Amino acid sequence: MKTVFMFIGAFFLLVFLVLAGGVAYNWEAAKQIWRFSPVVMPAMYGAPENQAEANEQDIRFLKQFLKYDRSFSEDERTAFLDYVEELSARAAELSKADLYLGISHAVAIADNGHTGTSASPLYREFNRVSAKFFWFADGLYVVRAGGAHKDLVGMRVVAIEARNVDQVERALQKYTGGVPAWRKLYSSLFMGSPEIMHAAGLAASPDALSITIADTNGAERNVVLTGSTVPGQIDLARRRPWETLKATPLADEDSTWQQTLSLNTDEVSHYLRDTDENFYRTRIADGVYLRAQLLLEREETPILSHFEAVLNDAAEAPYAFMVVDLRWSPGGDYTKVIDFVKAAPNAVRENGKIFIIVGPQTFSAAVVTTAFLKYYGGDKSVIVGSPMGDGEIFWAERGPLPFKLPNSGFSVNFATGYHDWAEGCAGKHKFCFSQNIVHEVPAGSLQPNVLIDPTYADYASGQDMIMDWILNEEAKSESISAQN
Predict the structure, then answer these.
(1) Which is nearest to 269 in space by CA: 479, 469, 92, 73?
(2) What are the extents of the domains in the chain?
(3) Topology (CATH) of 270-392+443-477
(4) Which residue, 223, 251, 255, 383, is most buried by CB atoms nearer than 10 A?
């Protein structure tokens, strides 16, 4: 028996030494995980007896959120706790939509784009009208619609429930944190659900939505859209607002649906080709166009081999220009782009340009990629498009598990690491993300050098106004070079 205990003791000592050795060998990685990737401890409540108790438990657990998220200032922490107490007092009367909006408002007090409730319930759990909206430079438009309302495609939304649509958007801002472009982008998802709009006090009924639309001649009329759910809605894949612009049917649309663009792959502009692919690239004359979405190296989203191929193709003859389209990129792991962004300037000719296309969906690691390309590209780099979904300064990073409420199942994203891509945060902020200390660059302002915000008519034409501008600039540049 003594031998058995000695064997067990030796085994556990060996395991301890191996673990300790692994931590020592990967000390920097271990420190990063410890500081910036906390494991959320699950709620340990008994099964609720009714909906009121279920709501109360979710709200009680929400108070633990401040243990994980660091983006709240002291005043914002106080406002958060005060609001959660107010929400708790109303727990018994809250519908699921009320609860979702209450939680969304509470965490949006941090005013940080990475700190917020997951948007997936907006299209998975709550009812939706048979129309999908998107914001353009000239307003909110019906981009796709189905059933009896497919004739609404191309109509501008003037008002919702007799409220000017801009006023409605402003009223919805409190449910999403971050910069104005990010808040506005996601407001269109809220607007598509009568349940959500009713809970927000912006619709008379949770079952239908009254909208005022204007046709191309400016003639207005009112339309009532009924909310419904569709089979399989709860299992829909993650959807981001820009996907409303796709020229192909979406998973929750049947054959009665019509979209603005229904062009063949070869007819649609490059920015909307093969949108189910995470990475798209093509040669355009003597230049190259690449569109990256999720910046993660996974089996289903490989990016490193694509970046490598772009650089390899320029090994013998540098590109006349390079277009890096990040307008649909929600971010990922910015360390995966570092080799590419450092090499990209040498992959274009001495007088060539790197055009970085951005927009409201450009977020997180995509913003960092923009900062890298601007910094390393210097005079070669030109940012084109509309303001991004993140500013130069933001909080990001999170743990391996989401902060998930025990009964409703709503997930809330938290943020633990500070970023400053204007001036840098290393040595200035105690929670500056550890990777930034190694890789950050003082890129300055990341506002577009050239502001191009397409109208609905621009989009509906099937053309890409941003690429049209870029190619026109290249044509002028080549003409000047030829004259010299």
Answers:
(1) 469
(2) 51-117, 120-259, 270-392+443-477
(3) 2-enoyl-CoA Hydratase; Chain A, domain 1 (3.90.226)
(4) 383
Structure tokens at 122: 């907006």
DSSP symbols for 96-138: HHHHHHHHHHHHHTT--TTSEE-SHHHHHTS-B-SEEEEEETT
Local structure of residue 238 (DSSP, 8 states): P
Q: Decide if 401 contacts 38 (C-beta within 8 A).
A: no
What DSSP element (H or E) covers 371? helix 365-377
Residues 437, 296: Cα–Cα separation, whole Å: 21
Rounded-to-integer distance, Cα 129 and Cα 238, Å: 18
Mean pLDDT within 1-29: 49
Over the stretch 41-60, which tens digit does the pLDDT of each residue have? 999 999 999 999 999 999 99
pLDDT band at 476 (very low <50, low <70, confident <90, very high): confident
* CA dist., res. 484 & res. 312, Å (int): 30
Is the confidence at residue 30, as pLDDT, over 80?
A: no
Looking at residue 33, its pLDDT comes to 77
Strands 348-358 and 319-325: parallel
168-181: pLDDT as tens digits:
999 999 999 999 99
User: Token pair for residue 331?
Assistant: 């971010």
Write the CATH number of the domain with boundaries 120-259: 2.30.42.10
pTM: 0.91
pLDDT at 201: 98
Specify the 3-state DSSP secondary structure of 39: coil
How far is residue 369 from each of residues 100, 287, 326, 412, measured CA to CA in Å? 33, 20, 9, 25
For residue 446, what are the contacts with CB-CB under 8 A and spacing of at least 6? 358, 367, 370, 371, 374, 383, 388, 391, 392, 421, 422
161: left (phi over 0), alpha (psi -120 to 50) or beta: left
